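Protein 1 of 2
SEQ + STRUCT:
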Amino acid sequence: MQTNLLQKCCNIAENWFCHTCVKSVSKNHATTAAELSEGSNTSLLAEVKKIAEDIKEVKISLGKQSDLAFENNERLRKIEELALKQEKIIENLVSENKTLKSQIIILEYKLNQAEQAQLANNVEIRGITVNPDKTTEGLVCSIGAALGVKLYVEDLNFEERKRSRREDPRPPPIVVRFVRQTLRDEIIRLRKEYGSDSQS
């Protein structure tokens, strides 16, 4: 009898629990889990916000980089356009320079031909003493009259007396350019016939 009673008491002791304590423990356990869950959510939310801010900053940075790249592309485009314009200008200048060089060569040739033609009208008259009372034009016209050719001032393109040389006692020669080569040829022919000392 006593053994059975003792066994029952042991069984009761093993299976007994305090409802108040269990309730308190359960309540505390639930509260702690909620607090932990709320703390985790707060921390996670902060991390998400930080990531969102980082993404926003990255987007802003990428936007700035995109704007900068666009500006650089615009600058490069303008530089390329300017380079093309300068290239065309240089090409035009080179072409114009070639044209001008060709024109200069032609003009130089024509000038040389004209000078040669003018030289063909020249006569150099020697042995005429310097007369301060007469102009060079008057002397040339007088020489023409002495040779039998009536000369006018309009027949002379230009006339000048060369500078005298100190070592040469002879009077400096007179260079005459006639307007027409026929006059020059006529003067030379008559001078030879009359044995003039003048030379062409």
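Protein 2 of 2
SEQ + STRUCT:
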Amino acid sequence: LTFLLITTAAGSHISYKDCGSKSGRPIFVDLDPCPTERPCVLHVNTQVQLAVRFFSSTQTDQVTTVITGYLAGVDVPLPISDPNSCDHGVNCPVSSGQVNTYNESIYVDPGFPLVEMTMRVELKDDGTDDLACVEYPIKI
């Protein structure tokens, strides 16, 4: 398991768990705002900035993003503006050995359940293997 916890001026590298990256590996995850305590507390009616930096060990033309909340044994899809990671900072096509950063602005909708859950971010290659899969606790 990989864990990081570093504070920066632009946000916080948050502590995360690698949840099965196969064709790459995460380098760091930033969630802003997110204080250093766990879980990250996200407030409704706010925008949260997410950045996932990752290393690719394969070539892929496309990268697709899937973000879910895991609650009581159920994966609940969390809405994102566009699942095409290439439109969010990833330089596609991605070469083996390349480092990229995925960036997303997530609106914390008042309709989200006001609970603690595990947020999972998956960046998938053409073959739907995870270039990066990260999980971290959040509380809305």
